[in-house]
Design a protein that fits this description.
Blueprint lengths: L1 E5 L2 E3 L5 E8 L8 E6 L5 E7 L6 E3 L7 E6 L4 E6 L8 E10 L2 E5 L3 E5 L2
Parallel strand pairs: 2-11
Antiparallel strand pairs: 1-3, 3-8, 4-5, 4-9, 5-6, 7-8, 9-10, 9-11
């Protein structure tokens, strides 16, 4: 199993960013996929999940209405579109292979997202 995130960076408050996750080594379209994040000095926080087909999505209250999770099962890629970013969204963002809605068994090395003026 290999999960590699990309697309992180520095963005101003109110800005947008899209992070991606390239998956390989398993049957991507057979699994839930999840985004989690970890802010400095804080615990890992679940952000969003998407079913294997992509038909259903779920979000933490803190990001609902601002973030959109999606997937391309032909390209084995997971996405997280982040709009209206806030300083409290600053974290390392990890994609993870889901075993259910909010649990996972593998995750990538992460990509840093920093929201600051």
């Amino acid at each position: 199993v290999q999960l590699v995130e990309s697309g992180g960076g520095l963005v101003q408050p109110g800005g947008s960013l899209r992070v991606s996750c390239a998956a390989s080594g398993f049957t991507f379209n057979g699994y839930w996929m999840i985004w989690v994040r970890q802010a400095p000095g804080k615990r890992l926080e679940w952000v969003s999940s998407i079913t294997s087909s992509g038909l259903f999505t779920y979000y933490a209250d803190s990001v609902k209405g601002r973030f959109t999770i999606s997937r391309d099962n032909l390209k084995n890629t997971l996405f997280l579109q982040m709009n209206s970013l806030k300083p409290e969204d600053t974290a390392v963002y990890f994609c993870a292979r889901g075993t259910s809605n909010r649990s996972w068994d593998q995750r990538g090395p992460g990509t840093q997202v920093t929201v600051s003026s």
